[in-house]
Amino acid sequence: MSRPVAGRAGAGGAPTSTPGAPTATRIDSESAFARLKPEWNALLASSRTRTIFLTWEWISAWWEAYRAGKELYVIRVDAGERLIGIAPLYRRRLRRALGIGWRVLQPLGDGSYDSDYLDWVAEPGREGEVVGEVAEFLDRHRHDWEMLLVNEIPDTSPHLPYLRHEGTRRRWISEETPVPCARVRLPGSWDEYLALLKPRQRTKVRSLLRDVDGSADARFDRCQDREDLAPRLESLFDLHNRRWRAQGRPGVFEEPAKRAFYAAMSERFLARDWLRLYSLSVSGRYAAHQFCFEYDGVLYLLQEGYDPTFAGSEVGNALRGLVFRDCIARGLRAYDFLAGVTSHKLAWGSSVHRSVRLTLARPTLKSSLSFRAARLKAALLARRRAPRGEAAP
């Protein structure tokens, strides 16, 4: 089904059509979504929001694994015969504060704790037009949705100022939450990188790599063949789950959809030479894995696992050091830990940048009450957590 809106509303609220004016159309069928692939990747390659989490390979694998209970709500924006923008969304039901149900639009890739740096895609210089046309489309189809989530969008996104502007102009209720992320900028040599670390961390990394380099039983490699992919993934799933079970918690790979997503996405990434599934073996047995991918000069760490029986040997840190050294040797610009900032990530030389979770809702009494209830709950939790004698912010 397609629902076009050309130009802006004219007299009486009917859409007007101007030659060459952007036109927004909803894609909600699997076949139309599949046909979008060549245009999607071509537009992404030229855009200012080019990240691996917006590639067709990532988005399509995610949708195949997690689509249960969801509807496609992708909005494409064309100018004449040319695609100039995509708002990659889906629709689902969600319960928020007070147990109230919502018709929610949110980014494809969001909701499973797999994706970071999500965004919309637009021809450079036309981000404002694209956001404006999508906002106009959503206003004209206001009964399709009540809340729009723009989660994990980088705070440097060219779309973000326009999304805020459209929200204000249309009196949508808005809420923003910052998401800190950690990234290491890689220098030109291994020695330069080590010099960036604090003395204790530098000594530790040197010692771990010296032990691996001097061991005849240790092997560092990565998956490069399709025949090797399935057994290596199974080992990653097993080691990750075993580590968490040892702490009395379930691992994420006990979820069938998660495993299906990794399997489909890994095959597509391997075919594009984006997959970087690194492993450290000891005496022919996998001791640790890092599931990474490389895109546009950056290595992204998505997941990792190590054998708990090797915990005392710090095989996870040894593998990380080997991966860092490999990245620098191959001239990559950065190693990205993605969302979440910890002392461990900072110890490896990370700097902090931010993404944003932006929530926009239609201006209704239901929205006002729900947002107020959510803010009151957050304030009460903050007050409860504040140290005695110290006011919550």
Give the H and E element order: EEHHHEEEEEEHEHEHHEHHEEEHEHEH
Secondary structure category: alpha+beta
Number of strands: 16
- Apparent shape: globular
CATH level 1 class label of the largest domain: Alpha Beta
Radius of gyration: 23 Å
Query: Main sheet, how many strands, which sense, barrel?
Result: 11 strands, mixed
Fourth-level CATH superfamily of the largest domain: Gcn5-related N-acetyltransferase (GNAT)
Query: What is the annotated CATH architecture of the largest domain?
Result: 3-Layer(aba) Sandwich
Number of helices: 12
For this structure, the CATH topology of the largest domain is: Aminopeptidase
Strand order of the largest sheet: 3-6-7-9-16-10-15-14-13-12-11
Mean pLDDT: 90
Features:
disordered N terminus; Aminopeptidase; five-stranded antiparallel sheet; eleven-stranded mixed sheet; 393 residues; alpha+beta; 16 strands; 12 helices
Commentary on this structure:
There is one protein chain. The protein is globular, with a radius of gyration of 23 Å. It has 2 domains: 5-179 and 355-385, Gcn5-related N-acetyltransferase (GNAT) (Aminopeptidase), CATH 3.40.630; 187-332, Aminopeptidase. The protein is 38% helix and 28% strand. The protein has helices at 30-35, 37-46, 56-66, 127-140, 160-169, 190-196, 199-213, 226-245, 256-271, 315-329, 343-347, 365-385; strands at 5-6, 22-27, 71-72, 74-79, 82-87, 89-95, 101-107, 121-122, 147-154, 173-185, 218-222, 275-282, 285-295, 298-306, 334-339, 351-361. The longest helix has 21 residues, at 365-385. The chain is an alpha+beta fold. The chain has an 11-stranded mixed β-sheet, sandwiched between helices. The chain has a 5-stranded antiparallel β-sheet with strand order 1-2-4-5-8, with helices on both faces.
